TrEMBL record:
It comes from Modicisalibacter ilicicola DSM 19980. Residues 206-324 form the DNA mismatch repair protein S5 domain. GO terms for biological process: mismatch repair. Belongs to the DNA mismatch repair MutL/HexB family. GO terms for molecular function: ATP binding; ATP hydrolysis activity; ATP-dependent DNA damage sensor activity; mismatched DNA binding. It comes from the Bacteria. This protein is involved in the repair of mismatches in DNA. It is required for dam-dependent methyl-directed DNA mismatch repair. May act as a 'molecular matchmaker', a protein that promotes the formation of a stable complex between two or more DNA-binding proteins in an ATP-dependent manner without itself being part of a final effector complex. This is DNA mismatch repair protein MutL. The keyword DNA damage applies.
Length: 328
């Protein structure tokens, strides 16, 4: 199983940021309200994710590390419209096969309860021992790729790995305003984000994550039609800091990079005199989970809409109208 896990790890675990993404998604799936991320050396030396979610019961701890063990899906029908971010039961097994992984968790209210398992890329049953932890889970991943030198060589500088990690953090923090987040790197706090519940709070978070310039002359929109809702912020023509990478699109709370979506947005901007400008946006599309498949591929951010035409037209016309009305 170790080799199989290491091979599977090649698909999910490319670099520290991919580990961070999987661990944060698990914390979100566990219903956490606070998620703390701590990194050292861009995440290559240490990744620690602490959450206050449901926790994992003692008897489930070793299982959580084994391949294809997921608590999130019970039947094939569940696959239709999966609500959780993970469901393949692959991430922890893969990560533990290429790192020194420690899992401490408590599914009880009692803060003196809790259990720890340690896996060091070895082919053996993880041993469970008592370890007090407040309700929730901490996952510590040390020395990523310590036993796969060929992969380790592909890691870039600390700065580059950190910027990938921050990007993952940014996307996930933009996907859940109701969760409080912190990000620390080499003992230094990079982000401390309180949970927010209104548009003003949302704007504070966006400024903190994307820079205060992002909202200069940006337009807030919230449009609903035929079972679809589009809300968020788009940069206007005079936007002073149009950065190519500040494009965030979420479908039912998941980060998505999709051709149909990109096309609809580009068309709308092009029509409203954005020639040659790069659109910047943070946009959220919400629709009935039954009419969209967000699980096309574990790492690519594609989606499949049952009625692509409808979604495309809705995005295009909503943006077109909002941008057109805002035009000076
Ligand atoms: P998946 O997320 O696809 O189910 P993972 O390998 O990421 O697979 O996780 C395996 C299982 O471990 C999950 O199904 C869940 O039951 C448990 N788990 C992992 N992380 C957490 C967490 N932070 N809080 C609670 N349970 C967790
Ligand atoms: Mg997972």
């Amino acid at each position: 199983p170790r080799l199989a896990n290491q091979i599977a790890a090649g698909e999910v675990v490319e670099r520290p940021s991919s580990v961070i993404k999987e661990l944060i998604e698990n914390a979100i799936d566990a219903g956490s309200r606070r998620i703390e991320v701590e990194l050292e050396a861009g995440g290559a030396r240490l990744i620690k994710i602490r959450d206050d979610g449901s926790g994992i019961a003692e008897e489930d701890l070793p299982l959580a590390l084994s391949r294809h063990a997921t608590s999130k899906i019970e039947s094939l029908e569940d696959l239709e419209g999966v609500a959780s971010l993970g469901f393949r039961g692959e991430a922890l097994a893969s990560i533990s096969s290429v790192s020194r992984l420690e899992l401490v968790s408590n599914a009880d209210e009692d803060p003196t309860a809790g259990w720890r398992v340690v896996a060091e890329g070895r082919d053996m049953e993880p041993r469970v021992s008592p370890a007090p932890h407040p309700r929730g889970t901490s996952v510590v991943v040390r020395d990523l790729f310590f036993n796969t030198p060929a992969r380790r060589k592909f890691l870039r500088t600390e700065k580059t790995e950190l910027s990938h990690a921050e990007e993952v953090f940014r996307r996930l923090a933009l996907s859940r305003y109701d969760i409080g987040w912190t990000l620390r790197h080499n003992q230094k706090a990079l982000h401390q984000l309180r949970p927010v519940s209104d548009a003003a709070g949302g704007e504070r978070r966006i400024s903190a994550l994307l820079g205060g310039k992002f909202l200069d002359n940006a337009l807030h929109l919230d449009i609903e039609a035929s079972g679809l809702r589009l809300w968020g912020w788009v940069g206007l023509p005079t936007h002073s800091r149009a950065q190519a990478d500040q494009q965030y699109f979420f479908v039912n709370g998941r980060v998505v990079r999709d051709r149909l979506v990109a096309h609809a947005i580009r068309q709308a901007y092009r029509d409203v005199l954005f020639h040659g400008r790069h659109p910047v946006f943070v946009l959220y599309l919400e629709l009935d989970p039954a009419v969209v498949d967000v699980n096309v591929h574990p790492t690519k951010h594609e989606v499949r809409f049952r009625d692509g035409r409808l979604v495309h037209d809705f995005l295009f016309s909503s943006l077109h109208r909002a941008l057109g009305e805002a035009r000076p």
